Amino acid sequence: MNVVVRQQAEALAAAGHTVDILTRRSSFELAGNVQLTPGVTLRFLDAGPAEPVAKGDHEAFIDEFRLRMSALGPYDVYHSHHWFSGMAALPLARLRGVPHVQSFHSIAADESTPLSAGERPESPGRMAGEAWLARESDAVVAISAAEADTVVERLGGSPDRVAIVPPGVDGSLFRPTTPEPGAGRGYAIVAARLQPLKGLDLAIEAIAAVPEAVRPDLVIAGDASADFDGYVDELKALASRHGIEAGVRFVGPQSRVALAALLRGARVVLIPSHSETFGLVALEGAASGVPVVAAASGGLREAVLHGDTGVVLESRDPAAWAGAITTILSNPGLARRLSVAGREHAEDLDWPRSAAGLLVVYRALAGPGADHHQHLAIA
Per-residue pLDDT tens for 106-117? Predict the structure, then answer.
C-alpha cells in the first residue's frame, strides 16, 4: 500500500497536480512536513502517541486524525487508502462538499472464514467500517477485478461507483540482470509482511520438497507483524523440522533499492499468499525478469499471466509447488521465456499510466467545471 500511495502521488504531481499525503506521526523525531518531490508533501498528523502502535489499536485514533485533517486544505478530492483513514476522511469530505474516494488494498473477512477470504479483522470496527465506506464513498478504486468483485459482493458497494486502476512498476529500478555463469543453485525469494495470511509456511515446505540437487536457498524479506507475535519463530522451527534451516534466510524489511537488487538476483519469486488484492511484488518480479510462482488467490490471477510470465497454482500442496519450482529451475529455456515475457508485461504497466487512471475517477467526480490542476489529499 505504501508503495502504491507514494508512486501514484509522485506521478500525479508530475502531471501537474498538488498532493498531500497524510499519515499518523509515530515518532517525535519525524518532522511535521516532508517534501518528497516537487508537488508531493508528506504531512505527519498528531493522533495518538508519537510512537509505533499495533495496527489493531489505530481505531482509537480515528476522531483525532479527522480533527488534525480538518486544519488542512482546502482539497479538491480526498482519497483514503485504508479503512482507518476513510472513517476519518469521509465525514470531513461530506462536511466540506468534496468528493471522497476509497481504496482498501486488503479487505477483512470474518474470523470463521478461511484465510483465502482475506485478512482477519484486527480491530472491532473494521468489517462494518469497510462496508460503510464501500456504500457511502463517492467512488471506490480497486486495484484488480478480483478486489472490485469483493467490494460489490461482500461490502455492498455499487458497481457503477467502483473503478479498477491497476498499479504500476518502476521499470528502471526493477530491471533484469544477466545471471552469472556458475552461480550455483541461487535462491528463491518471498517478499511480504511476516504473517499467516502470506502463506510463508507453504514457501518453506515447498523449498524443502525440491530435490536437493537443484534446491535453492530461500530468502524471506519483510517486517514481522506486531499483531502476530511469535510467527517468525514458528517459521524458523518449521524450516528446522524439514532440515533446511541453514538455507532459509530472514533478511528483514528492505528499502526499495535493496528489494530490487534481491529480486533481480533471484531465480524464482514465490507468492504463496492465501489472499491478495493484486500482489505488487509479482509485477516487480516480472519487471526484474524473474519467473513468478504464485497462488491462485484474488488479484494474483491478474498480476501473473499463467504460463506466460509465471505459474499460478490452484493447489496449496507443497509437492505441487516444489514441482513447479523444479521445472523452472531445471529448464533454462522455460525460465528464459518466462523472464522475457514478464519484462514485456511489466513494461506495459507504469506509474504514469496508473495515475492517469486515478485522474479519470477524480475528474468524473469533480465535474466539468473543475480546475484542471487539483489539490489532492491522500491518507
Answer: 888 887 777 767
- pLDDT tens-digit readout, 37-84: 999 999 999 999 999 888 888 899 999 999 999 999 999 999 999 999
Distance, CA of 176 to CA of 178 (rounded, Å): 7
Residue of 41, 42, 38 whose CA lies nearest to 15: 38
C-alpha pair distances (Å), 142 with each of 101, 127, 162, 218, 251: 10, 17, 7, 32, 31
* pTM of the shown model: 0.90
The superfamily in CATH containing domain 187-347 is Glycogen Phosphorylase B; (3.40.50.2000)
Tens of pLDDT, residues 210-236: 999 999 999 999 998 777 878 999 999
Domain ranges of the chain: 2-168+350-378, 187-347
Q: 28 burial class (0-12, 13-18, 19+ CB within 10 angstroms)? A: exposed
User: CATH assignment of 2-168+350-378, given 3.40.50.2300, 3.30.420.10, 1.10.10.10, 3.40.50.2000?
Assistant: 3.40.50.2000
Residue 12's Cβ-count burial label (10 Å; 0-12, 13-18, 19+) is buried
- Assess whether the region 2-168+350-378 and the region 187-347 belong to the same CATH fold: yes
- Mean pLDDT over residues 128-135, rounded? 96
Q: Can you name the residues that pair with 295 across neighbouring β-strands?
A: 313
Residues found in the chain: 379
